[in-house]
Design a protein that fits this description.
Blueprint (H helix, E strand, L loop, with lengths): L2 H12 L8 E2 H7 L6 H10 L12 E2 L13 H11 L12 H4 L4
Parallel strand pairs: 1-2
Helix pairs in contact: 1-3, 2-3
Length: 105
């Protein structure tokens, strides 16, 4: 697999996620036509240039709304702060309220 090409395609999909919405790793993979490669989307997000490169990787979460424990740009606390700043709401469990904030592309 061409990692660089895959990563760039993943970044392209993630750039489409609007502020105030989140997508799952699996959702991004499906939108890329790679439904079994959610883990690779995670690798791409970990390697992304972040907001400075126009990739809002903080908007990608696990299917249950959990945040990435190794969020590349400051840990899950920073990811949560960034999402809350965009208006994303969280449940008492600390997970994103996926019913309200999951992006429906």
């Amino acid at each position: 697999m061409d990692n660089e090409g895959f990563f760039q395609r993943a970044y392209g999909v993630v750039r489409l996620i609007p502020p105030g919405r989140v997508a799952t790793y699996g959702q991004v993979a499906r939108m890329m036509g790679e439904p079994r490669k959610a883990r690779y989307v995670g690798f791409a997000m970990h390697s992304s240039p972040g907001l400075s490169g126009g990739v809002p990787c903080h908007r990608v979460v696990f299917a249950d709304g959990s945040l990435a424990p190794g969020f590349a740009f400051g840990g899950p606390e920073e990811q949560r702060r960034m999402l809350e700043a965009e208006g994303v709401g969280f449940l008492a469990s600390g997970k994103v309220d996926m019913r309200r904030f999951e992006w429906e592309a």
